[in-house]
Design a protein that fits this description.
This protein is mainly alpha-helical. The chain is built from 28 helices and two strands. Strands 1-2 form a two-stranded antiparallel sheet.
C-alpha cells in the first residue's frame, strides 16, 4: 500500500513539475505572456475618457447610417461617409510603438537587398515625391467621381427615390466613387514613405526571442549557452528567408517566408551539412508551439459568428469529412505503411496546414521526418493554389462570396488565404479569412480526437484496457494555451463591440504585437525544420509516391466538397446572410 502511495505521489510531483520542465507548457507561458503584454499596451491602457469619446462617435455615425438607410433604397453618400467615420483609429503609446517597430521584418525590395533593411530619410522623401503625382491624380479622380455621384443622388432624391432608373444610376455612380476613393487612399499611402533602419531593430528582436526561449531552455534542463550560440545561425537563416519573401519577382511565385526557410535550410543540411553548433537551437516544436499560442489571439469568436451558419458548415462539416475520408483512403486504397504520416498529411491538408500538422503529429507521435514531409507538401501546394485558384475562380465567373469561401476552405496557410482572397476583392478576402479562422478553431479538437483514436485503436494492444491517462499524455498541451488566448481575446472583443475591438484588439494588440511575433516564431520553426531535415531520411517515406498521391487526391476531394457546400449554404439555404456580407 505504501509503495502504491509513493507511486501516486511521484506521479503527482512529476505532473506539477511538467509545468516548468516541459516544452508545451513553456510555449503556453511565453505565448500568453506576449498576449497579455499586447492587451496591456493596447487595450487596458486606453483611457476611459477616450473610450467614451469613441463610443459617442460610433453612436452618432450609426444614427446617421440608420437615418440614411430609411431614406433611400440604396446606400447613400452620407451613409458611406458615416460608415467611414465610425471607424476608430487609436494612436499607440510610445512603448507600444517601439515594440511594433522592433518586430518589423525586411521590407519589399527589387534589385538591392539592402533596401529591405535600410531606407534613409532622403530616399524616403524621394520615393514619396515620386508617388505624389499619382496620388494627386487619384485624388482628383475621386473628387470628380464624388461630384458625379452627388449629382446622381440628388436627381434620385428629387423623385423621392421612387424612380427605379434614377436610383440605379445613383447607386452605380456611388459605387464608382467608392472605387475611386479607395484607389485614392491607396495612392496616398504610397506617397507617405517613412525611413527605417532594421539594422538597429533586428538585434533587439533577436535578443527578445533569444532571452525568451532561453528561459524555457534553462528550466527544461538543456544548455542555454549551446542554444544561444546555435540560435544566432537559426536567426540568420530566418532573416534571409524573410528577405527572400519580400523580393518583388520572387513573391510572384507564391512562396512564403516559411517555404523559403525550409528550402534554404534543406539546401544547407543536404549539401555542406548543418553545423554542429547550430543543432542545439533547432527547437522546431518549441518555436512553432509558441507561435500557435500566439495564433490563438487571432481567433476571435465574435468575428466567426458574424459570418453566420454558412461559414460554420463550410469549415466544420467539410473539414472533418475530408480528414476522415483522406485517412481511410490512405489506409484502404493506397495502403500507406505509416499511419502517423497518413493522419498528419490528412490533418495538414484538410484543417489548416502546418498548424494542424504540428498538433496532430504530437498527438499520434509522428516522427520528425514525417512532420517535415507533411509540412513540405503543404507549403508546395499552398504556393501553387494561392496563384491558380483565384485564376480559376475568375475564369469560371464565380461570385466573390463563393470564391472567397472556396479559397478559405481549401488553401492551407492563413496568409496565403488572405492574399488569394484579395485577388478577387475585399468581400472575397473577408469571407476567405473568416472561414480559415473558423477552421483554425479545429486545431485543438483534431489533436484531441487523434489522441483518443491512437490510444484506443491504433496503439492499443489487443486484450488490454484503455489507459485514459495516456490520452492526456499524448494531447498536445500547447493547444490549451491556444484556446486560452482565443477565449480571452474573444471575450474582450465581444465586450468592446466591433468598432472598438477592431481598433484596440485587431489593429492594436494583434497586428502590432502578437501577429508579428507569431510570424517570427513560425519562420524560426521552419528554418529549424529545414536545417534538421535530411533527404536520405525522407526517401523511404516517398516510396511509390504515396504521400503525394494522398495529398493530391485528398485536396481534389476537398476542393469539390468545399465548393459544393459553399454554394449550397451561401446561395441556396442562407441567401439572406450572403446578401448582407
Amino acid at each position: 500500500m505504501s509503495q502504491q502511495t509513493d507511486v501516486v505521489v511521484d506521479k503527482a510531483k512529476s505532473s506539477w513539475s511538467d509545468l516548468w520542465k516541459k516544452e508545451d507548457y513553456w510555449a503556453i507561458w511565453l505565448g500568453l505572456f506576449f498576449c497579455f503584454l499586447a492587451l496591456y499596451l493596447h487595450v487596458f491602457s486606453y483611457s476611459a475618457a477616450d473610450k467614451e469619446a469613441a463610443i459617442a462617435k460610433v453612436a452618432t455615425a450609426k444614427a446617421v447610417m440608420s437615418e440614411e438607410a430609411a431614406k433611400a433604397p440604396f446606400k447613400t453618400i452620407e451613409w458611406y461617409n458615416a460608415s467611414d467615420n465610425k471607424k476608430i483609429k487609436v494612436k499607440s503609446g510610445e512603448f507600444a510603438a517601439t515594440l511594433k517597430n522592433i518586430t518589423k521584418t525586411p521590407q519589399r525590395w527589387k534589385d538591392n537587398p539592402l533596401k529591405a533593411f535600410v531606407l534613409s530619410k532622403e530616399e524616403a522623401d524621394a520615393a514619396a515625391a515620386k508617388a505624389k503625382p499619382a496620388a494627386e491624380k487619384a485624388k482628383a479622380a475621386a473628387t470628380e467621381a464624388l461630384d458625379t455621384a452627388t449629382a446622381a443622388q440628388e436627381a434620385a432624391a428629387l423623385e423621392g427615390f421612387k424612380n427605379t432608373a434614377l436610383n440605379a444610376d445613383a447607386e452605380k455612380a456611388i459605387s464608382a466613387w467608392r472605387s475611386a476613393d479607395k484607389a485614392s487612399s491607396t495612392a496616398a499611402s504610397k506617397a507617405k514613405v517613412s525611413p527605417y533602419n532594421l539594422f538597429t531593430t533586428l538585434p533587439i528582436i533577436f535578443l527578445v526571442l533569444a532571452v525568451s526561449f532561453s528561459i524555457g531552455i534553462f528550466f527544461m534542463g538543456q544548455s542555454v549557452v549551446g542554444f544561444l550560440v546555435g540560435f544566432v545561425g537559426v536567426f540568420i537563416f530566418t532573416v534571409i528567408a524573410l528577405l527572400m519573401d519580400k523580393q518583388f519577382a520572387l513573391r510572384q511565385w507564391g512562396f512564403s517566408a516559411e517555404a523559403w526557410a525550409i528550402i534554404l535550410g534543406m539546401l544547407i543540411a543536404n549539401t555542406v551539412g548543418t553545423p554542429k553548433a547550430i543543432k542545439p537551437a533547432l527547437q522546431v516544436e518549441f518555436f512553432i508551439k509558441t507561435g500557435l499560442v500566439l495564433l490563438g489571439a487571432e481567433i476571435l469568436l465574435d468575428k466567426i459568428v458574424a459570418i453566420g451558419i454558412p461559414g460554420l458548415f463550410v469549415a466544420w462539416v467539410v473539414t472533418p469529412v475530408v480528414l476522415v475520408t483522406t485517412y481511410i483512403f490512405g489506409q484502404k486504397v493506397i495502403k500507406m505503411p505509416s499511419k502517423t504520416l497518413n493522419i498528419t498529411i490528412s490533418a495538414d491538408m484538410s484543417v489548416c496546414g502546418t498548424s494542424a500538422a504540428i498538433a496532430t503529429a504530437a498527438a499520434c507521435r509522428a516522427k520528425k521526418e514525417e512532420l517535415a514531409l507533411a509540412v513540405g507538401l503543404s507549403l508546395l501546394f499552398t504556393a501553387i493554389m494561392m496563384i491558380v485558384l483565384p485564376i480559376v475562380i475568375k475564369a469560371l465567373g464565380l461570385p466573390e462570396v463563393l470564391g472567397g469561401a472556396w479559397i478559405g476552405g481549401t488553401i492551407d496557410s492563413t496568409g496565403a488565404v488572405a492574399a488569394a482572397g484579395a485577388f478577387l476583392g475585399d468581400k472575397a478576402m473577408y469571407v476567405a479569412a473568416t472561414i480559415k479562422m473558423i477552421q483554425n478553431v479545429l486545431i485543438g479538437l483534431t489533436a484531441f480526437c487523434v489522441a483518443i483514436y491512437w490510444v484506443t485503436k491504433v496503439d492499443r494492444v489487443e486484450g488490454t484496457d484503455v489507459n485514459l491517462m495516456e490520452i492526456w499524455h499524448r494531447f498536445p498541451k500547447f493547444v490549451l494555451g491556444f484556446l486560452a488566448a482565443s477565449v480571452i481575446y474573444s471575450y474582450l472583443s465581444g465586450q468592446l463591440g466591433s468598432e472598438m475591438s477592431g481598433a484596440l484588439i485587431t489593429d492594436g494588440a494583434i497586428k502590432s504585437l502578437t501577429s508579428p511575433l507569431r510570424n517570427w516564431c513560425f519562420t524560426l520553426s521552419f528554418a529549424a525544420i529545414g536545417l534538421a531535415t535530411n533527404f536520405r531520411e525522407l526517401a523511404h517515406y516517398f516510396k511509390g509516391g504515396k504521400p503525394l498521391i494522398l495529398y493530391v487526391c485528398g485536396q481534389s476531394f476537398n476542393l469539390c466538397l468545399t465548393l459544393t457546400m459553399a454554394y449550397i449554404m451561401f446561395y441556396l439555404v442562407f441567401p439572406d446572410i450572403t446578401a448582407r456580407i
